[in-house]
Every structure is written in structure tokens, then in C-alpha cells.
Amino acid sequence: MSETKGRLCPFVMENLKNNKFLKEDMKMSYVDEVYDLVVAKNPAQPEFHQAVKEVLESLRVVIEANEEKYRKDALLERIVTPERQILFRVPWVDDKGQVQVNNGFRVQFNSAIGPYKGGLRLHPSVNLGIIKFLGFEQIFKNSLTGLPIGGGKGGSDFDPKGKSDREVMAFCQSFITELYKYIGADTDVPAGDIGTGAREIGYMYGQYKRLTGLYEGVLTGKGLSYGGSLARTEATGYGLLYLVEEMLKCNGKELAGKTVAVSGAGNVAIYAIQKAQQLGAKPVTCSDSTGWIYDPEGIDVALLKEVKEVKRARLTEYAAARPSAQYHDKAKEGTNQWSVKVDIALPCATQNELNLEDAKTLVANGVFAVAEGANMPTTMDATEYFQKNGVLFCPGKASNAGGVATSALEMSQNSERLSWTFEEVDSKLKNIMVNIFHNLDDAAKKYGLEGNYVAGANIAGFLKVAEAMTAQGIV
Ligand code: NDP
Ligand code: 2IT
Question: So where are the chain's domains?
Fold first, then answer.
């Protein structure tokens, strides 16, 4: 009865479950049972459901080979339930003297293999479901790095865009005044994510130190003058390209000479573009939330950095300063960067920014590799479309793991009170990314899913965490 393994409509499901004659004979698949439980227990959190579904679907082969043991230990129920969720009020005063109130979040998802580790997102779209999807992904990503870091994520619906430095500082100080009770160098180590860069981490670190008196590696992505690691700024984008290079090499292809579409114009996108150029490829697009750039001459990274990192301006300023660039307004034209004919696509902005229609366009235009710089930027149907059409597809929890891996290297440097050279950190990062690719490639092959890097990443990430959770008993 293969239907029991797929989805049944909720009405049929309820009837089947309540039928006392059927109950004994027909047990639902444990994977499906846990997914239904997640949906029922976490209403109105679609991104969290999506992240859980993708992971559980991949784990089906692993779980079903040992289903009774996993079920008895409630291993899946435990892994989809955060160890702790901290929700708090963040009041601060704006430049007009008006009090503003934001929601603060920190989800400490899983500490089986190390202290909670993961970024802080500051964006108006942030809610508990978004933080839970990110925290859940982070468990498997951090496991894939091979370093001792557990999964966590946090943030706020505060929007740093358009705020003065003083307002950003007021928010960050208030945020940490509550959060400092729950974090620490050996318990939970936050870092940057969308809207949280060097400026925000600096203000947060200062407030943590003032409140606790501790000069410790409680945050990563710190400035170089106070304990930051060389190459952390570049790490996510650089790591993405190291992994792509290895994935192409192992599939008989090469990066040099290829055209690349990148989305986003933030930390990940900028350094992905820079490394792609260093490796001989030609990135021709970037984007922000209002528009996108097509620059057939190749993106000018120095100009992009000036516009985004220094001026914190819109991409219209990039187009104004660069004759070869075309600016496209997303709302007015209804287009995006995935309409450009390229060989490789690297979504580096945000979740669900590449949908089935985009995937069809990219495939029709001859794209042969897609790797996620952002977290879950590709919808599930778009991912399946790429895979069915022979496109090499690497999921974010593997391809963007270079950021958190380098954060873990920053933690190591802080612990030994030393700092390593750029070359040292960069070469460790490259090794980590190459190892990640081979881990997920091997895991996919071992389970008869060769070339399915989504399954490979989820399985390889899961097995280490599951083993640690099992060894540590019911906690
Ligand atoms: P930044 O804030 O530096 O940049 C984000 C970029 O994406 C900006 O260009 C922003 O445009 C755009 N963007 C953000 N939200 C949206 C949206 N809702 N719609 C359209 N565009 C949007 O963030 P990062 O570069 O650090 O993060 C990008 C992605 O990479 C995220 O998914 C993050 O979780 C992931 N990531 C980040 C890591 C890191 O080390 N920083 C590590 C691993 C993953 P605008 O400025 O107009 O909002
Ligand atoms: O999504 C991510 O991996 C990050 N935002 C980086 C987290 C970190 O702790 O460096």
C-alpha cells in the first residue's frame, strides 16, 4: 500500500487513524507521522514546515531502515522540537524621542554536537516561523562543517534600513540587554545574517561586555580590532564558490569562463561575486529588494561594495555610475535576474526567491548548475525541476556553510587568544568546503541517490547529530 507513504488528505487520514480495525494493521510511516505532527503543532509557520518537509523526505531511506528504534526513541520528534525558544520585547527610543517596540527571538534548537550557533536576522519579515526554519536548517549545516557547533538562530522584526547609527545602536543595546542572559562563549554564540553586519555585531558585543564584564567569544563576525577573524566577512561567498568549483570538477565541468547569475547584493552576494571572478567566471547580475542589475561586462565589485557596504544605498546608484549596467525595477517590470541566460545560478538573497517559473526559465536558457548562497532560496518544486532536468543542485545547508564554519574558526581563535592569518583561515575554509561536498556526495551514493545532493546533505548532516543525541540519552 504505497499510498500510506505519500500524503493523504487530512480527512481521510483522520478516518484511517480512528478506525479500530485498521489501526492495528496499518501503521503510518514514522516520517509522515512526524511531519503531520509538525504541521499540527506549529500552525502558520509555512517556512518551518517547508524546511522540515525537505529534510524528512530525504531521511526517509535512513529512517525506514531502522524505523522502530528511531520511533521508540522519538528521535524525529526531538529533532524537530527546539530545545528552547526565547521570545522577548525590545523597546528602544528613535531619533524623534518616540519609543519603538520590536519582537526579539532566539531559538536554541539543538546542542547535541556543540554550543548553539547561528546568526541573528534583522528584517521586518522576521517571525517565529522564519527563525525556526533557519534554526532547523542550521542544525544540519553546522553538522556538515565537521566542527563542534549545535544549531540556533535569532533575530528581530527591526528594520535597520533607513535608521540612523544611533537608532541602530539603541536597538542593538536593548536587544542584548535581554538576550545576554541566555548566550555565552560556551553556550550560544550568535553572529550576523540578513540586516546584521559588522556595525550591529559591534554594538551588541559592546553591550554584552558591559553587562557581563566578560571579554569572550560570545559573538562571531566581530571587527578585527576586537577578536574577529580574518576572512569571516568573505567566508560565506568564498565558501560557496569553493564548493561550486569542487562540484563542477567532480562532474567533469569547470567554473572558468562561465557566466553566473547572482541574486542579492549583501554580504553573501558580494563575496560570491568576488570569488567567482577570481576563479575566472563572469557574474553578470545582482539584486536587492527593489531591483536587479544586468551588467554584461561583469559586475564591478569595487563599485558594488562602495554602493552597498559604504553608502548603504540602492542599486540605482550602481547603475548610475556604470555605463554598461542595466537597472530593472522589480515591481514595475515584474522581472528578475533569473531571466538572464547564464550557465550557473547562485541565489544569495533570501528564502523562496527562486520559484518553479524561474527554474523553467533558467533550464530553458541552458543553466547547468545551481548552488544556494542564501538559506532555502529555492522552492521545493523548483529544486525538483532542476534535479529532474539534470542540473547540478547544491542546497544551502552545504553550499553556504562556509560562513558558520569560519565563525567556528573565530571561536577557536578566541579560545586560544590568538589570531590566524588570512591565508590560514582561507585555506581551512577551502578544505572544509571540499570535504562537505565529498561528504554529501558519498552519503547520496551510499543510499542509492547518486547526484542528489539535497538528500546527501540532509542524510550526512542528520547521521552525526542523531548519533550524538542517541549517545547522550533522553535529554
Ligand atoms: P545582507 O543583509 O547582507 O544582504 C541581503 C541581500 O538580500 C540584500 O541585497 C537584500 O536587499 C536582499 N534581500 C533580503 N531580503 C530580501 C527580500 N525579502 N526580498 C528580496 N531581497 C531581499 O544578508 P546576507 O548576505 O548576510 O544574507 C543573505 C542570505 O544568505 C540569507 O538567506 C542568509 O540567511 C544567508 N546566509 C548568510 C550568511 C552570512 O554569513 N551572512 C551565512 C549563510 C547564509 P535589500 O538590502 O534591498 O533588503
Ligand atoms: O545562516 C548562517 O549560517 C549564518 N547566518 C551564519 C551563522 C554564523 O554563526 O556564522
Answer: 10-79, 84-220, 235-394
Res 28: pLDDT: 85
d(CA 39, CA 33): 10
- The minimum-distance atom of ligand 1 relative to the CA of 400 is 43
Collapsing DSSP states into helix, strand and coil, what is residue 173?
Answer: helix
Q: pLDDT by residue (tens digit) across 93-105?
A: 999 999 999 999 9
Residues 146-202: pLDDT tens digits?
A: 999 999 999 999 999 999 999 999 999 999 999 999 999 999 999 999 999 999 999
pLDDT exceeds 80 at position 460: yes
DSSP sequence for 334-391: ---GGGS--SEEE--S-TT-B-HHHHHHHHHTT--EEE-SSSS-B-HHHHHHHHHTT-
Q: Report CA(375)–ligand 1 centroid distance (Å).
A: 9
Q: Cell numbers at residue 205, please?
A: 558585543
* Amino acid at the residue 140: F
Q: How far apart are CA 108 and CA 14, in angstroms?
A: 33
**194, 240, 274, 355: which to mutate for ligand 1, most atoms within 8 A of CB?**
194
Ligand 2 pocket member 196 (CB < 6 A): no
**Domains 84-220 and 235-394 in one fold:** yes
130 Cβ below 6 A of ligand 1: no
pLDDT tops 70 at residue 17: no
End-to-end CA distance of the chain: 36
3-class SS of residue 89: strand
Pocket test for ligand 2, best of 107, 108, 126, 138 (most atoms within 8 A of CB): 138
Residues 230-252 have a mean pLDDT of 98
Residue among 107, 142, 149, 236 whose CB has most ligand 2 atoms within 8 A, to mutate:
236
Q: Is pLDDT above 50 for 6? A: no
Tell me if 403 CB under 6 Å of ligand 2: yes
Cell of 10: 487530512
Q: Which atom of ligand 2 is nearest to the CA of 404?
A: 10
pTM: 0.95
> What is d(CA 455, CA 361) in angstroms, rounded to the nearest whole number?
24
Q: Which residue CA neighbors atom 3 of ligand 2 most closely?
A: 404
Domain 235-394 falls under CATH 3.40.470.10: no
**E strands within 94-156?**
99-110, 116-122, 150-156
Q: Could you say which DSSP state residue 229 is in?
A: P
Q: What is the CATH T-level fold of the domain 84-220, as seen in this structure?
A: Rossmann fold (3.40.50)
- For the Cβ of 168 lying below 6 angstroms from any atom of ligand 1, the answer is no
